[in-house]
Amino acid sequence: MKRVIFILILAVAVAWSAFTVFQRPALFEDGKSDYSIVLCNDASVSEQTAARELQQYLEQIGGALLPIINCDQLADGQQHILIGFNDEYGKQCGVERPDSNDEGYTYRSVGKNIWIYGGRQRGTMYGVYSFLENEFGVRWYTKDYTKIPKVEKWKFKNLYCSEKPFVNYRYILYCNVEWNKKWPAHNKCNTAWAASDNEYGGLTAYWNAHTMGQFISAEEYFHQHPEYFSLRDGKRTPHTQLCLSNPEVLQICIEKMKKTIADNPLYWVYSLSQNDNQFPCQCDECRAIEEQYGGHSGLVVWFVNQVADAIKPLYPDKYIGTFAYQYTRQAPTGIAPRDNVVIRLCSIECCFAHPLEECEHNRPFIADIEKWSQIAPNLYIWDYVVNFRQYVAPFPNFGVLARNIKTFKKYNAIGIMEQAQYQSLGGEFSDLKAWVLSKLLWNPNFDTKALVAQFIEDYYGEAAPFVQQYFNLCQSLVKDDTVLGIYIDDKNSLYTDEFVAAAKKLLDDARQAVVSSDEEIRLRVDFVCLQIDYLRMMRSPHEAKEDGTYDRLCAFVRKHNVRLNEFSSIEEFIADFNKLLE
Length: 582
What we know:
The chain has an 8-stranded parallel sheet. The chain has a 6-stranded mixed sheet with strand order 3-2-4-6-5-10. Strands 1-9 form a two-stranded antiparallel ribbon. By secondary structure, the protein is α/β, with parallel strands linked by helices. The N terminus is likely disordered. The N and C termini lie far apart (about 100 Å). It is about 40% helix and about 15% strand.
């Protein structure tokens, strides 16, 4: 009998729940809404920004302008979207107030209302943007193009979505998104080259790189103090590295670091790192420390630890960072970085054709990251996702992006920077790759192929089918024995005549498909076509000169300021190419 009563009660409860859900009003319908957007009285700046943008986007999506009010303006029976943590809702739902810096978020239905909350600095804001993405299909693809669908009516049943970032510090170093405050916020990236305080919760940053030569420059010090610089083959040499065993070098770096932090207070970590060359000091004192601590990296960690110790009493919440890069990539022995030291490990020598842990070429890197993860309390990854020798040539690495991010986190990375074409617009699929990377840094379990297909369909208009086929053709270049470094040239075996011919046909069709399209879509397709125009020009320079490819490419890169490699300006590149024609 008790079982029958229980079943009847349960049935009534389910029926009533279904009835109340069915009775839940639409958020908006035919350009009208009974909802308001409610800000907590103590709303942060980013929460206020998120509320304003939610209002703007919902108006563009459904035509209804929802008023923004504060909690103390609420009346009984009103329907609302509550932005930010609310203690009453927290008790009702059994959740505690998140830490201010918590970048996770939750959005959920509470009766007829919607509640979006997270950490005050950026978490709540990320929740608002995810609500717009997940429920309405808004996409912030580039700094200049946002997809905003039109919806006549939107009703909800039981909403619940809760996420946290996969990695703490997420940075996409692409020129097309750098120096922009909106795109990183909308795509949940929290780091830039330069830290800033803005209405989106700010952007944190890792201050600078290759800084030892900035703290003690050859121009300022070498004439009077050659002993501050590397001893190479028995001679002190400027523009190399510093002599880190010299106690005066240590004191100068400590004082310079104190001033750097005081002058640049918004950063969370400050670089004290080797110059970008491979000429470490060979003096007896430096070599003795290296022998004691297992190599070049041991000397650097020994030196940086002392600076970190001097800084900690003054700035207990700041970190000192240094490289594990090229000749310092191998982890030291007998010494570990201090808890306020960040090791920035660089993948510059790696192959990016296959996932790092599945590639024979990358075994030394995996050995190094494993050892660093065992001794470094703070491991930060400097990763590379383009070909720096030829920015615009196909670089088919999309298949490894998610897997490599997972590998970095497996070895305890707290942050990842994806360095790409940082000097100009127009890199190989730069808009596409930047957006896909932003999604994967937040959650590498996203389906990369699905993200790519979504972007291409929305971004390239009538040319999308041909661009998708071309993209697939590029990715198919990767074979089991492919080694894809970041400095390959146009003569690499990756690029065959058959590939170039097939790619040209697809991109000719893409160009033809957008003849009647608007100028912006034609320009997007032209940036894709630049990839094969470049390859054809480099592989067959005289033919490219005769058939107009050369003139078209030169005019395009000049007009849109597209650097073709890291090492040459546009005019230097064109001058060097002209020598090939002589």
